[in-house]
Amino acid sequence: RQDLFQEEGILILILDAIDKITIIASQGYMVALVGEESGQDWEIISGYLYQLLAAVIKGNHTNCSIFANSHRLNWLFSRLGSAGEGTGMLDVLHCVLIDSPEALNVMKEEHIKVIIALLEKYGRDPKVLDVLCSLCVGNGTAVRSSQNNICDYLLPGRNILLQTQLVDHVSSVRPNIFVGHVEGSAMYQKYYFEVTLDHIEQVSHLPPHLRIGWANNCGYVPYPGGGEKWGGNGVGDDLYSYGFDGSNLWTGGRETCVYPMNSRPYIKKGDVIGCALDLTVPIITFYVNGRQVNGSFTGFNLDGMFFPVL
Protein backbone atom coordinates (compact mmCIF):
# COMPACT_ATOMS: atom_id res chain seq x y z
CA ARG A 1 0.00 0.00 0.00
CA GLN A 2 3.01 2.31 0.17
CA ASP A 3 2.68 3.35 -3.49
CA LEU A 4 -0.96 4.17 -2.86
CA PHE A 5 0.00 6.39 0.08
CA GLN A 6 2.23 8.41 -2.22
CA GLU A 7 -0.33 8.55 -5.05
CA GLU A 8 -3.01 9.82 -2.67
CA GLY A 9 -0.67 12.41 -1.21
CA ILE A 10 -0.45 10.86 2.27
CA LEU A 11 3.35 11.09 2.23
CA ILE A 12 3.24 14.85 1.59
CA LEU A 13 0.59 15.25 4.29
CA ILE A 14 2.84 13.57 6.85
CA LEU A 15 5.76 15.85 5.91
CA ASP A 16 3.52 18.93 6.15
CA ALA A 17 2.19 17.82 9.53
CA ILE A 18 5.74 17.41 10.83
CA ASP A 19 6.63 20.92 9.63
CA LYS A 20 3.54 22.48 11.25
CA ILE A 21 4.06 20.69 14.56
CA THR A 22 7.70 21.79 14.54
CA ILE A 23 6.63 25.44 14.14
CA ILE A 24 3.97 25.16 16.85
CA ALA A 25 6.37 23.50 19.29
CA SER A 26 9.39 25.71 18.56
CA GLN A 27 7.46 28.97 19.01
CA GLY A 28 5.89 27.80 22.26
CA TYR A 29 2.24 28.23 21.22
CA MET A 30 1.01 25.04 22.88
CA VAL A 31 3.01 25.57 26.08
CA ALA A 32 1.51 29.05 26.43
CA LEU A 33 -2.01 27.77 25.74
CA VAL A 34 -2.26 24.50 27.69
CA GLY A 35 0.78 24.46 29.97
CA GLU A 36 4.20 22.83 30.07
CA GLU A 37 3.13 19.18 30.46
CA SER A 38 0.59 19.19 27.64
CA GLY A 39 2.99 21.14 25.48
CA GLN A 40 5.49 18.30 25.73
CA ASP A 41 2.91 15.97 24.15
CA TRP A 42 3.76 17.56 20.82
CA GLU A 43 7.18 15.92 20.95
CA ILE A 44 5.52 12.53 21.48
CA ILE A 45 3.12 13.14 18.57
CA SER A 46 6.05 14.24 16.43
CA GLY A 47 7.88 11.01 17.27
CA TYR A 48 4.88 8.96 16.12
CA LEU A 49 4.77 10.89 12.86
CA TYR A 50 8.40 9.99 12.18
CA GLN A 51 7.62 6.33 12.84
CA LEU A 52 4.69 6.60 10.42
CA LEU A 53 6.93 8.24 7.82
CA ALA A 54 9.51 5.45 8.17
CA ALA A 55 6.77 2.82 7.75
CA VAL A 56 5.48 4.47 4.58
CA ILE A 57 8.91 4.56 2.88
CA LYS A 58 10.69 1.48 4.29
CA GLY A 59 11.69 -0.98 1.58
CA ASN A 60 10.09 1.19 -1.12
CA HIS A 61 12.62 2.66 -3.53
CA THR A 62 10.09 4.98 -5.18
CA ASN A 63 9.03 6.58 -1.90
CA CYS A 64 12.58 6.75 -0.55
CA SER A 65 13.83 8.41 -3.74
CA ILE A 66 11.78 11.50 -2.81
CA PHE A 67 14.50 12.21 -0.27
CA ALA A 68 17.39 11.56 -2.69
CA ASN A 69 17.89 15.26 -3.47
CA SER A 70 19.70 18.03 -1.66
CA HIS A 71 16.49 19.88 -0.66
CA ARG A 72 14.88 16.89 1.05
CA LEU A 73 18.14 15.68 2.60
CA ASN A 74 18.73 19.12 4.08
CA TRP A 75 15.17 18.96 5.48
CA LEU A 76 15.92 15.56 7.04
CA PHE A 77 19.15 16.72 8.64
CA SER A 78 17.65 19.94 9.94
CA ARG A 79 15.11 17.81 11.80
CA LEU A 80 17.80 15.35 12.86
CA GLY A 81 19.80 18.04 14.58
CA SER A 82 16.85 19.47 16.51
CA ALA A 83 16.14 18.49 20.10
CA GLY A 84 13.84 15.57 20.87
CA GLU A 85 13.50 14.33 17.29
CA GLY A 86 16.73 12.41 16.77
CA THR A 87 15.79 8.78 17.34
CA GLY A 88 12.66 8.80 15.16
CA MET A 89 14.47 10.60 12.37
CA LEU A 90 17.24 8.00 12.46
CA ASP A 91 14.71 5.37 11.38
CA VAL A 92 13.68 7.55 8.44
CA LEU A 93 17.26 8.31 7.43
CA HIS A 94 18.26 4.65 7.64
CA CYS A 95 15.38 3.70 5.32
CA VAL A 96 16.42 6.35 2.80
CA LEU A 97 20.08 5.29 2.74
CA ILE A 98 19.27 1.58 2.45
CA ASP A 99 16.46 1.73 -0.11
CA SER A 100 17.60 4.76 -2.13
CA PRO A 101 21.37 4.41 -2.66
CA GLU A 102 21.41 7.47 -4.93
CA ALA A 103 20.97 9.54 -1.78
CA LEU A 104 24.56 8.62 -0.90
CA ASN A 105 25.77 10.75 -3.82
CA VAL A 106 24.05 13.83 -2.36
CA MET A 107 25.55 13.45 1.13
CA LYS A 108 27.89 16.23 2.22
CA GLU A 109 30.45 16.64 4.98
CA GLU A 110 28.08 18.64 7.17
CA HIS A 111 25.51 15.83 6.98
CA ILE A 112 28.02 13.30 8.25
CA LYS A 113 29.09 15.68 11.04
CA VAL A 114 25.46 15.84 12.24
CA ILE A 115 25.26 12.04 12.47
CA ILE A 116 28.59 11.77 14.29
CA ALA A 117 27.41 14.46 16.73
CA LEU A 118 24.51 12.15 17.61
CA LEU A 119 27.00 9.63 19.02
CA GLU A 120 27.94 12.22 21.60
CA LYS A 121 24.30 13.16 22.15
CA TYR A 122 22.77 9.68 22.50
CA GLY A 123 25.86 7.59 23.27
CA ARG A 124 26.73 4.47 21.29
CA ASP A 125 23.23 4.09 19.92
CA PRO A 126 23.00 1.11 17.51
CA LYS A 127 20.70 3.17 15.26
CA VAL A 128 23.38 5.83 14.82
CA LEU A 129 25.98 3.17 14.00
CA ASP A 130 23.57 1.56 11.51
CA VAL A 131 23.22 4.89 9.71
CA LEU A 132 27.01 5.34 9.62
CA CYS A 133 27.34 1.83 8.18
CA SER A 134 24.72 2.65 5.53
CA LEU A 135 26.76 5.67 4.49
CA CYS A 136 29.84 3.57 3.87
CA VAL A 137 28.45 1.09 1.35
CA GLY A 138 25.86 1.46 -1.41
CA ASN A 139 24.74 -1.38 -3.69
CA GLY A 140 27.61 -3.45 -2.33
CA THR A 141 30.18 -0.84 -3.41
CA ALA A 142 32.31 1.23 -1.06
CA VAL A 143 31.45 4.95 -0.89
CA ARG A 144 34.96 6.31 -0.41
CA SER A 145 34.02 9.94 0.24
CA SER A 146 31.71 9.01 3.10
CA GLN A 147 34.20 6.53 4.53
CA ASN A 148 36.98 9.12 4.47
CA ASN A 149 34.79 11.77 6.12
CA ILE A 150 33.70 9.37 8.86
CA CYS A 151 37.32 8.42 9.55
CA ASP A 152 38.43 12.07 9.56
CA TYR A 153 35.74 13.31 11.95
CA LEU A 154 35.03 10.26 14.08
CA LEU A 155 38.27 8.46 14.76
CA PRO A 156 40.71 11.18 15.92
CA GLY A 157 40.75 11.31 19.71
CA ARG A 158 38.02 8.70 20.06
CA ASN A 159 38.06 4.96 20.58
CA ILE A 160 34.54 4.09 19.37
CA LEU A 161 35.56 2.39 16.13
CA LEU A 162 39.26 1.70 16.68
CA GLN A 163 38.82 -2.06 16.95
CA THR A 164 40.10 -3.97 13.95
CA GLN A 165 37.09 -6.29 13.73
CA LEU A 166 33.79 -5.01 15.04
CA VAL A 167 31.44 -7.83 16.00
CA ASP A 168 27.79 -7.48 15.00
CA HIS A 169 26.29 -9.07 18.10
CA VAL A 170 27.52 -11.00 21.10
CA SER A 171 25.20 -13.04 23.29
CA SER A 172 25.72 -15.66 25.97
CA VAL A 173 23.49 -18.47 27.19
CA ARG A 174 23.92 -20.69 30.21
CA PRO A 175 21.97 -23.28 32.21
CA ASN A 176 20.87 -22.56 35.77
CA ILE A 177 23.60 -24.60 37.44
CA PHE A 178 26.54 -23.45 39.56
CA VAL A 179 29.38 -25.61 40.89
CA GLY A 180 32.38 -24.71 43.00
CA HIS A 181 35.18 -25.71 45.34
CA VAL A 182 34.39 -25.31 49.04
CA GLU A 183 36.67 -26.67 51.76
CA GLY A 184 35.06 -29.50 53.71
CA SER A 185 32.08 -29.66 51.33
CA ALA A 186 30.65 -32.94 50.00
CA MET A 187 29.95 -31.27 46.61
CA TYR A 188 31.36 -33.33 43.76
CA GLN A 189 34.51 -31.86 42.19
CA LYS A 190 34.43 -33.12 38.59
CA TYR A 191 31.95 -32.08 35.91
CA TYR A 192 31.47 -32.60 32.19
CA PHE A 193 28.94 -31.38 29.62
CA GLU A 194 28.55 -31.60 25.84
CA VAL A 195 27.12 -29.29 23.21
CA THR A 196 25.92 -30.58 19.83
CA LEU A 197 25.60 -28.01 17.03
CA ASP A 198 22.29 -28.69 15.27
CA HIS A 199 22.19 -25.69 12.92
CA ILE A 200 24.45 -22.84 11.85
CA GLU A 201 24.03 -20.05 9.29
CA GLN A 202 25.71 -16.79 8.35
CA VAL A 203 23.39 -13.80 8.81
CA SER A 204 25.85 -10.91 8.33
CA HIS A 205 29.16 -10.13 6.66
CA LEU A 206 30.95 -11.92 9.51
CA PRO A 207 31.06 -15.73 9.79
CA PRO A 208 29.38 -17.05 12.94
CA HIS A 209 31.79 -17.61 15.82
CA LEU A 210 30.87 -19.97 18.66
CA ARG A 211 32.79 -20.48 21.90
CA ILE A 212 31.92 -23.03 24.55
CA GLY A 213 33.35 -23.37 28.05
CA TRP A 214 33.12 -22.45 31.71
CA ALA A 215 32.77 -19.07 33.40
CA ASN A 216 32.98 -17.76 36.97
CA ASN A 217 30.25 -15.67 38.58
CA CYS A 218 32.86 -13.51 40.37
CA GLY A 219 33.55 -11.59 37.18
CA TYR A 220 31.90 -12.87 34.01
CA VAL A 221 28.92 -10.64 33.22
CA PRO A 222 27.90 -10.56 29.54
CA TYR A 223 26.26 -7.39 28.22
CA PRO A 224 24.41 -8.27 25.00
CA GLY A 225 23.06 -5.40 22.94
CA GLY A 226 23.46 -1.69 23.72
CA GLY A 227 23.67 0.27 26.92
CA GLU A 228 26.33 0.24 29.59
CA LYS A 229 29.51 -1.62 28.58
CA TRP A 230 28.18 -1.68 25.03
CA GLY A 231 29.58 -4.40 22.83
CA GLY A 232 29.12 -7.43 25.05
CA ASN A 233 31.50 -9.97 26.49
CA GLY A 234 31.85 -13.41 24.98
CA VAL A 235 33.25 -16.55 26.57
CA GLY A 236 37.00 -15.99 26.97
CA ASP A 237 36.87 -12.22 26.46
CA ASP A 238 37.78 -11.63 30.10
CA LEU A 239 39.83 -13.29 32.86
CA TYR A 240 36.79 -14.95 34.42
CA SER A 241 35.78 -17.21 31.52
CA TYR A 242 37.52 -20.01 29.64
CA GLY A 243 36.32 -21.04 26.20
CA PHE A 244 37.07 -23.13 23.13
CA ASP A 245 35.97 -22.18 19.59
CA GLY A 246 36.78 -25.48 17.88
CA SER A 247 40.36 -24.45 17.15
CA ASN A 248 41.57 -22.01 19.83
CA LEU A 249 41.47 -21.70 23.59
CA TRP A 250 40.23 -18.28 24.78
CA THR A 251 40.67 -16.33 28.01
CA GLY A 252 41.44 -12.69 28.74
CA GLY A 253 40.54 -11.84 25.13
CA ARG A 254 43.54 -13.81 23.84
CA GLU A 255 43.48 -16.95 21.71
CA THR A 256 45.86 -19.92 21.66
CA CYS A 257 45.64 -22.42 18.82
CA VAL A 258 45.39 -26.01 20.08
CA TYR A 259 43.43 -27.73 17.30
CA PRO A 260 44.46 -26.36 13.85
CA MET A 261 41.59 -25.90 11.38
CA ASN A 262 41.78 -24.61 7.81
CA SER A 263 38.21 -23.43 7.31
CA ARG A 264 35.66 -21.38 9.22
CA PRO A 265 33.44 -21.74 11.12
CA TYR A 266 35.60 -24.01 13.25
CA ILE A 267 32.62 -25.76 14.85
CA LYS A 268 30.40 -27.22 12.13
CA LYS A 269 26.93 -28.71 12.00
CA GLY A 270 26.87 -32.05 13.79
CA ASP A 271 30.04 -31.44 15.83
CA VAL A 272 29.97 -32.43 19.50
CA ILE A 273 32.11 -30.30 21.82
CA GLY A 274 32.81 -31.65 25.31
CA CYS A 275 33.93 -29.48 28.24
CA ALA A 276 35.38 -31.04 31.41
CA LEU A 277 36.05 -29.24 34.70
CA ASP A 278 38.12 -30.87 37.45
CA LEU A 279 38.24 -28.65 40.52
CA THR A 280 40.68 -30.90 42.38
CA VAL A 281 43.61 -29.91 40.10
CA PRO A 282 42.12 -27.48 38.88
CA ILE A 283 41.97 -28.03 35.08
CA ILE A 284 39.56 -27.42 32.19
CA THR A 285 39.87 -29.66 29.12
CA PHE A 286 37.95 -29.85 25.84
CA TYR A 287 36.94 -32.58 23.39
CA VAL A 288 35.96 -32.48 19.70
CA ASN A 289 33.75 -35.41 18.66
CA GLY A 290 35.19 -37.51 21.49
CA ARG A 291 38.87 -36.62 20.93
CA GLN A 292 40.64 -34.55 23.56
CA VAL A 293 42.40 -31.43 22.25
CA ASN A 294 46.07 -30.83 23.08
CA GLY A 295 45.55 -27.90 25.40
CA SER A 296 43.89 -26.98 28.69
CA PHE A 297 43.43 -24.27 31.31
CA THR A 298 45.12 -24.91 34.65
CA GLY A 299 45.93 -23.03 37.84
CA PHE A 300 42.96 -20.66 37.59
CA ASN A 301 41.32 -19.00 40.59
CA LEU A 302 38.73 -21.14 42.40
CA ASP A 303 36.94 -18.23 44.08
CA GLY A 304 33.24 -18.04 43.22
CA MET A 305 31.06 -20.53 41.39
CA PHE A 306 31.50 -21.94 37.88
CA PHE A 307 28.79 -22.50 35.27
CA PRO A 308 28.68 -23.82 31.67
CA VAL A 309 28.35 -21.07 29.09
CA LEU A 310 28.38 -20.63 25.30
Automatic annotation (TrEMBL):
<keyword id="KW-0675">Receptor</keyword>
<dbReference type="InterPro" id="IPR015925">
    <property type="entry name" value="Ryanodine_IP3_receptor"/>
</dbReference>
<dbReference type="InterPro" id="IPR035761">
    <property type="entry name" value="SPRY1_RyR"/>
</dbReference>
<dbReference type="Pfam" id="PF01365">
    <property type="entry name" value="RYDR_ITPR"/>
</dbReference>
<dbReference type="InterPro" id="IPR000699">
    <property type="entry name" value="RIH_dom"/>
</dbReference>
<dbReference type="GO" id="GO:0005219">
    <property type="term" value="F:ryanodine-sensitive calcium-release channel activity"/>
</dbReference>
<dbReference type="GO" id="GO:0034704">
    <property type="term" value="C:calcium channel complex"/>
</dbReference>
<dbReference type="InterPro" id="IPR003877">
    <property type="entry name" value="SPRY_dom"/>
</dbReference>
<feature type="domain" description="B30.2/SPRY">
    <location>
        <begin position="102"/>
        <end position="310"/>
    </location>
</feature>
<dbReference type="InterPro" id="IPR013333">
    <property type="entry name" value="Ryan_recept"/>
</dbReference>
<dbReference type="InterPro" id="IPR013320">
    <property type="entry name" value="ConA-like_dom_sf"/>
</dbReference>
<dbReference type="GO" id="GO:0005790">
    <property type="term" value="C:smooth endoplasmic reticulum"/>
</dbReference>
<dbReference type="GO" id="GO:0042383">
    <property type="term" value="C:sarcolemma"/>
</dbReference>
<dbReference type="InterPro" id="IPR043136">
    <property type="entry name" value="B30.2/SPRY_sf"/>
</dbReference>
<dbReference type="GO" id="GO:0030018">
    <property type="term" value="C:Z disc"/>
</dbReference>
<dbReference type="GO" id="GO:0014808">
    <property type="term" value="P:release of sequestered calcium ion into cytosol by sarcoplasmic reticulum"/>
</dbReference>
<protein>
    <submittedName>
        <fullName>Ryanodine receptor-like</fullName>
    </submittedName>
</protein>
<dbReference type="GO" id="GO:0033017">
    <property type="term" value="C:sarcoplasmic reticulum membrane"/>
</dbReference>
<dbReference type="InterPro" id="IPR001870">
    <property type="entry name" value="B30.2/SPRY"/>
</dbReference>
<dbReference type="GO" id="GO:0006941">
    <property type="term" value="P:striated muscle contraction"/>
</dbReference>
<dbReference type="Pfam" id="PF00622">
    <property type="entry name" value="SPRY"/>
</dbReference>
